[in-house]
Amino acid sequence: MNIDLTGKVALISGASRGIGRGIAIEMGKAGANVTINCRTHPDEAEEVAEEIRKAGSDALVYPADVSDRNAVDEMVNATVEKFGHLDIAVSNAYYSKRQPFLDLELDGARQTLDVTFWGAFHIAQASAQQMVKQGNGGAILFISSVLSQIPMKTSLPYNAAKAGINQMSATIANELTEHRIRSNVITPGYIDTPGERQFATDEQIKAAAKNIPWQRLGTPEDIAKSATFLCSDAADYITGTILNVDGGYCLKLG
After folding, report:
1. Which of 147, 190, 228, 240 is the most interior residue, by most CB within 10 Å?
2. 62 classed as catalytic
3. Catalytic option among 91, 145, 169, 183
4. Is the overall model pTM greater than 0.85, yes or no?
5. Which parts of the chain register pLDDT below 50?
6. 162, 183, 190, 232: which is the annotated catalytic residue?
7. How far apart are CA 9 and CA 32, in angstroms?
8. Is 158 part of the annotated catalytic residue set?
């Protein structure tokens, strides 16, 4: 299926690297103009913008900390000022402090929740408020994690934030049907990203791949294809859902 986002405008948080980068490029290739949010790695964000422009779409790089609501509001305004409207919002930015529960430092836990949960809330609410003003519906997508379902050790704040995102999305979907704004979640499994490589060596990643039913780690492109579909008109009848894109990772729970 060829997904067409021509005429759409998408805002994607945490889009300079990893999953966000993959989604931004895939949506740009599908015809969307894209605001590429980043807090760090601005040079890589500019590379993403160049890839999108090569594909024939336009891009705006906007550095902002998604845990800062004023910054998010200004980013939404800048998107509308440049492109005229906003149709798609993808909440992907995250932070994760991994420590055992008994040693968990509150500052790291708070930052994880501020960026991963409240940052997602800010992106979704500011974008939805703009979409309601426009009156043409829209799509909100949260990038959650299979750790919203799997209580992995040393990852309490992140696990809790992602579980909260799943319920937040469902509630948003329930409230915004009258505005024809859809809200959905993708829960990636073990994806090979720069962020994941902070916590694992190449050898550990290769070993982990053998334990995944699909026998490989996922890629940002795997998530990007699903994200582009869920935010397109082809998914017009899908809202309030959670889609595992995990190569069968969660099947092992059975």
Report:
1. 228
2. no
3. 145
4. yes
5. none
6. 162
7. 5
8. yes
